[in-house]
Write a structure and sequence with these properties.
With about 400 residues, the protein is an alpha/beta fold. The protein is built from 14 helices and 14 strands. Helix 2 packs across helix 14. It is an enzyme of class 1 (oxidoreductase). Its EC number is 1.14.14.3.
């Protein structure tokens, strides 16, 4: 059986040797995958740590939405990815997870425009948070995006958690130009992305700004008009994906929640989790200084696999156990380690991750090409056999 590297697992770019049926009942999946002695360990682990201080966390998944025509992939088309994304969100809610988040990439065989998917997930679920991580604002018309986001949030009953940012390294050269956008004179493309974000945030306030026509097709309310549909409260559920301390401080000043992923600018040479924890603390300090009247949220992403059975060991039993350093977009970056171990060891390793301890939300990157049932098992293993012992549940 093929073994996946942790790097593949983190990106979701993996393949399963058999096509997997669409989601069935979550409890049936649990019984299918949790065989062997490992499933008996949690009681001992819970007893050992029952006096541990509790730090509850929201736990969700983050899918990159890859597809491939390979016969080893459970997602062989865009249709497969979209439908299985819906099924996985439903399964995650059944299992007690808190969030279903999706990556957004353009010009790639991955999930792109997120709002149709978010709207359907919102209609198919009733409790779970629904989000992105992240939408590249260089590609976005903030006015049209505000309408789409408002619609998706209303359909979900106010469960949208929208992650936005400047975006990740691109598949094509200056892809945003093909969408009709170009930086203003003196701007970088990152500046343009932040400018689009600021406009988007202003629009979400719901204040009127457009002069009504004296001869409208339908009667207008008095005063200046805003974009509709407007969803009250969405403005406080916008997150900024930050890869540096500087952009985390900017996000705090703008009143956005913080998303910090498995990649960060290497600013001190320290281990990834130490640098990320410092980034979170700096963000929270800047938030207080800005004087916002509500508490922000902070999420971190991790690739975490509890090795419960032979299949888990075959896929992830031989993984990267240390940070990696490289150059991305002319930036020295540190890529955080992945975690793959039997629950007892996994608990001890995760306990030492300073950034996870600082965050209130943990997003588990899932290998979506392994299919809905296997990924539901991955989530269930963490929720059932790891999270309680760490005080996350």
């Amino acid at each position: 059986m093929y073994r996946f590297s942790m790097r593949e697992a983190a990106s979701g770019n993996t393949a399963f040797p058999e096509r997997t049926p669409r989601c069935g009942d979550a409890l049936a999946r649990r019984a299918t995958y949790l065989w062997g002695g490992a499933s008996q360990r949690p009681n001992r682990i819970l007893a050992r740590h029952q006096r541990q201080e509790r730090h509850m966390k929201k736990i969700g998944f983050l899918s990159f939405g890859h597809w491939s025509a390979s016969t080893q992939s459970a997602t062989r088309s865009a249709s497969d990815v979209l439908l299985q994304s819906i099924d996985l969100a439903v399964a995650a809610e059944e299992l007690g997870a808190d969030g279903a988040y999706f990556r957004v990439h353009h010009f790639a065989q991955q999930l792109a425009s997120p709002f149709p998917l978010l709207a359907v997930v919102g209609a198919k679920t009733g409790r779970i948070e629904i989000g992105t991580g992240v939408i590249d604002m260089r590609y976005e018309n903030p006015f049209y995006m505000a309408e789409d986001a408002g619609s998706a949030d209303l359909i979900s009953g106010g469960r949208l958690q929208l992650g936005i940012s400047r975006g990740s390294p691109e598949q094509v050269i200056e892809g945003w130009r093909h969408f009709g956008y170009a930086p203003a004179e003196g701007e970088t493309d990152a500046d343009m992305g932040r400018r689009h974000a600021e406009v988007f945030l202003d629009l979400l306030k719901g204040e009127g700004f457009a002069q009504p026509s004296p001869r409208p097709m339908f009667p207008n309310p008095p005063g200046l008009l805003r974009l509709e549909p407007h969803s009250a409260g969405l403005r406080r559920r916008i997150w900024w994906g930050s890869a540096s301390n500087a952009t985390a401080l900017w996000a705090a000043r703008q009143g956005m929640n913080l998303q910090s992923s498995t990649l960060k600018a290497d600013e001190t040479g320290e281990p990834f989790h130490v640098q990320q924890a410092r980034q979170i603390r700096l963000y929270r300090e800047a938030w207080k200084e800005a004087g916002h009247q509500w508490e922000p949220r902070v999420s971190v992403s991790r690739s975490i696999f509890a090795l419960m059975n032979d299949t888990d060991h075959a896929y992830f039993g031989r993984g990267d156990s240390s940070d990696q350093v490289g150059i991305i977009d002319n930036m020295r970056a540190v890529f955080g380690r992945s975690y793959a171990a039997e629950p007892e060891r996994l608990i001890e390793e995760l306990r030492a991750d300073e950034a996870i301890a600082e965050a209130d939300t943990l997003l588990l990157t899932v290998p979506n090409q392994l299919g809905v049932d296997y990924n539901a098992h991955v989530l269930d293993a963490i929720l059932t056999h790891v999270a309680p012992a760490l005080g996350w549940r």
